[in-house]
Design brief:
By secondary structure, the protein is mostly helical. It has one domain. 82% of the residues lie in helices and 0% in strands. The chain is globular. Keywords: Membrane, Transmembrane, Transmembrane helix. It is a multi-pass membrane protein. Pfam families: EI24.
Amino acid sequence: MILDAARAAASRLFSPQFRSVFLKTLGLTLLALVAFWFGIESLLEWLAWPWLQGLLPGLPSWAGWLGAIVAGILLAMGMALLVAPVTAVIAGLFLDDVAEVVERTDYPDDPPGRPVPALHALVLAIKFFGVVVLGNMVALLLLLVPGINIAAFFIVNGYLLGREFFEFAAMRFRPEAEAKALRRKHAGTVFLAGLVIAAFLAVPLLNLLTPLFAAAMMVNLHKAVSAREKA
């Protein structure tokens, strides 16, 4: 069931119906990351460096160049960590478009789902941003612990991604409380599906498509789980 949902989602990623959503998501994500970069760089230049000079007067001139290089490396690492959550937030605004394409093309005889209200979708996207950032911070700390570092990345992201995207797909057909209850009932299946999404997230560049892949996959998985419930 999970592999079927993943295959169906992957087959849709580069279809013409998904192309417009992907281009909008990619463009807004790049704009947001550029804004983050210049915003943080300006804060470092205007606040951090003058504060450091005041704290340690008499720094040699080469210290400024060294500080700029270190700050650039840290900033690049920060941007790498922000790619996934920023993409998730922006794509969260278009997930209903993805779900509608999957439902219309793969399940034409089923009643269509109801779009999540715009304000609720924005709240969910912001909440998802928070849990993904928190989860990746925990996973990053665990990277320092030999033996569990890679496992920590997959476990944390598998749980968070599986939970959030399954509940999104379910809420198109059910009240929020019922969607959460269904996710808890099938927690093992949802977690394993989340691991597939986490593996997708681990691939550079391809991870920009993670929210679209995850939404399409979980629409298919919710359909399969709902059919099993009825049976």
